[in-house]
Design goal:
This protein is mainly beta. It is built from two helices and twelve strands. The strands form two sheets. An eight-stranded mixed β-sheet has the order 7-8-9-10-6-5-4-12. The longest helix is centred in the middle third of the chain and has 12 residues.
Length: 199
């Protein structure tokens, strides 16, 4: 795939905004798909899939198709007044280093992010590399985490579209006291065709 190729992912000509926002501070004209704590920009052709979390026993993430890649989105609770992504990023890096592959920290639009190449067996049984991009954005007692996988995950065109998607999300953390690092359960938006959680 060319660095500048854009496939029909249903997001249209999505542009950068100044989010992600706390839901209460989101622009009054913003239109969202409501996944509970996570609000994703509403687009007519958006392709999304809910993902079950075996620990939560509930929906733990939503994956959105961007170009030929997939972006898994989660909302995680964070301590007040702390940049929690730095803590989560170090833990993710340590975990990734337990497996074959390589990792690189780079500066992205939203701050430091990770690019990881993981070596593993493909469906055909042969060894192969897969590349993923991990992004974290700190909010007010929340962290929006995005994991981008699939073809072209780190291409310029996909990075730009993923960043635009993230910049148009909002988070409704709620006031409940929860331990830092808690994945907030999501819910299907009313009246949508979002796919059910994967097994």
């Amino acid at each position: 795939m060319s660095e500048h190729t854009v496939v029909d992912d249903g997001l249209g000509d999505i542009d950068l905004a100044d989010g992600p926002w706390d839901y209460a501070s989101a622009p009054s004209d913003a239109a969202f798909l409501d996944f509970g704590p996570l609000k994703v920009v509403r687009r007519e052709g958006l392709k999304a899939r809910l993902e079950g979390d075996p620990i939560l026993g509930k929906i733990g993430a939503v994956s959105v198709k961007v170009n030929e890649a997939e972006v898994q989105l989660q909302v995680i609770t964070a301590p007040a007044g702390q940049a929690y992504w730095s803590v989560v990023r170090k833990a993710l890096l340590a975990k990734l280093r337990e497996s074959a592959g390589s990792q690189q920290a780079i500066e992205g639009r939203f701050g430091p992010e990770l690019i990881a190449t993981v070596v593993g067996r493909r469906r055909d049984g042969l060894l192969g590399d897969s590349v993923m991009r991990l992004v974290g954005i700190d909010g007010d007692r929340w962290l929006l985490r995005a994991v981008v996988t699939g073809p072209g995950a780190t291409s310029d065109a996909t990075v730009a579209r993923v960043d635009a998607l993230l910049s148009q999300c909002a988070v409704d953390r709620g006031s409940e006291a929860l331990a830092a690092g808690t994945v907030l359960p999501l819910k299907p938006p009313a009246g949508t065709k979002v796919e059910a959680p994967s097994a």
